[in-house]
Amino acid sequence: MQRTKDRLTPAIGAVTLLLLLAGLWLSLTAPADVNQGLLVRLMFVHVPTAWLSYLAYGGTGLFGLLYLITRQRRYDRLAMSSGEIGVLFTVATIVGGMLWAKPTWGTYWVWDARLTTTALSLVVYGAYLLVRGLIDDPERRARVSAVIGVVGTLYIPVNYMAVEWWRGVHQTQTLKLLGGMNWGAAPVYGIALTVMTVAFTVLYLYLLRVRGILAARQERREEREFELPEPQGAALKTAEVRRG
Amino acid sequence: MDKYSGYVLVTYIVTFVILISYLAWVWWRLRQEDREA
């Protein structure tokens, strides 16, 4: 099959790599904080991973909504890709958060509102991916998961605002989306955090694109299998089951 | 290096291992799909 040359994906990949390298250099050379010591460097990866998971969950809701409006399957593929990326980066966020909590709070985990809602987002989007795996009919799968994705997205502001709405040990938002910016720390921390956050935002776009390309190819194969006469189609499916 | 460096190191390693593993999985699946096309 003839494919047009994709120049955009490698270009986004190259920009992502450059930004990540610059961000890593800034983060890992940032001076020790007067209170936290070198633990402050953990924030330059913990905050961007949390940001990326918010973006990804927002993407799942947005693409799900676009699917429900237009019924174009590419939106379903993007919604699924975004949900998968969100789950992965939520795991990274939780691990980073736990490792920051141990030396500062004295424990890896407390049932604080932010921590609990973050853990629950894994349940919501884990269920989203699970439901997709349980439905064979592509149209029904896309429709049902789009509804879950849209409803699940309502959960994101709750998670983001949890540090304001409930009393807990987690500090308030590092990246404030509402109200004016107020950066009280050393500028070098702000630069490192900004570069890493931009890098992770571009990384999200890159991951979404490559996972979307894979999802499109998987979908084409699924369609080919359904078009084949029964014995050949069955043989293909059996071979796939054996491969795992 | 201070007493917190271990926590920082593990966080960076875990995050980038997750990222690289995911990219490797996508790349492997893309190759498989290409072979079957």
Short description:
Chain A is mostly helical and 244 residues long. In chain A, 78% of the residues lie in helices and 0% in strands.
Q: Could you outline the blueprint of secondary structure elements for this entry?
A:
The complex is a heterodimer of chains A (244) and B (37).
Chain A lengths: L7 H22 L10 H31 L2 H33 L7 H22 L3 H16 L1 H11 L21 H41 L2 H14 L1
Chain B lengths: L4 H32 L1
Q: What best-fitting shape of chain A do the alpha-carbon axes yield?
A: globular
The secondary structure category of chain A is: mainly alpha
Helicity range of chain A = over 70%
In CATH terms, what is the architecture of chain A?
A: Up-down Bundle
Averaged pLDDT of chain B, please? 93
- Do you know the CATH topology of chain A? Four Helix Bundle (Hemerythrin (Met), subunit A)
> Per DSSP, what share of the residues of chain B sits in E-state strands of 2 or more residues?
under 5%
In whole angstroms, the N-to-C terminal distance of chain B is: 51 Å
> In this structure, how is the largest beta sheet of chain B organized?
none
Residue ranges of chain A: pLDDT <50 for 5 or more in a row?
none
What do the pLDDT scores of chain A average to? 87
What class, by secondary structure content of chain B? mainly alpha
- The assembly state of the depicted protein chains is heterodimer
* Number of domains as seen in the coordinates of chain A: 1
Helix-strand sequence of chain B: H
Overall, the morphology of chain B is rod-shaped
Largest sheet of chain A: none
